[in-house]
Amino acid sequence: MSEPQSPSVTPAAHMAAELASQPETWARAASMTREHALLPAPGARVAVVGCGTSWFMAQSYAWLRETGGRGETDAFAASEAFVDRGYDAVVALTRSGTTTEVLELVERLRGRVRTVGVIGDPTSPLVDLVDDAVTLPFADERSVVQTRFATSALALFRASLGEDLAGAVADARVAVAEELDPALVDAEQVTFLGRGWTVGLAHEAALKMREASQSWTESYPAMEYRHGPISIAAPGRVTWQFGEPPAGLADDVAVTGARFEAGGLDPMAELVRAQRLALARALARGLDPDTPRNLTRSVILGG
Question: Name one GO biological process term (predicted).
């Protein structure tokens, strides 16, 4: 898909084009069988690290890999990673390949633990630091607010674990084409919930809403929601579940007067719906998520 050459043509032009291209980028990532083989083999004890969005995708991959019987798998924010625990490999997920915390961690592990980078920019310094690099340049982005790289990386991970993503790709086509409900765009507050591998998706959906539209959003494991956070549910607010909801949760939310949103699409396609909502809310507020407040494409820390 061609992208606009000038970011000033239309507000959020890059984010809009990039999130709409996800069915194609997922299918391409799922087909990369040679690159799948570079990821840690079944039975390996693995840590997956990232920052921000990449950390949330790491959480989803770790849950899927471990519960799929592929080996113990932990996810860490790169700045808080406990990687000196006898891991066989560390997978570093980063769009830019320039994030300070990831580079420092991989540098520290050189020669001691096998490292695999899953990277958007094939010219980044991380490519030469890791033992094996899986690059996804077709999923890299111009918008500061990340959409397709994260989900394409997760598509790569899911396919590497033996999952057929044809249904997810078809659902993504639905998600990018459907008409958004204005009530969602106008909602005062949104809380995203997940279970198992979709907890990471819920956290990422909330982050997208904060980054793109400066919205009040929160995210939790679904079973934790009734342990306090449900207190903010009220008319004009939304509780959005990724995947199958816990028994009785929809009824509990209905009592509060809040809207309970539980779409039937693949949870990754539901994340696309949330990305589109973040974009729509940003535009309604006169904001441009291609250049959001206080954010840059990569966090590079000074010495």
Answer: carbohydrate derivative metabolic process
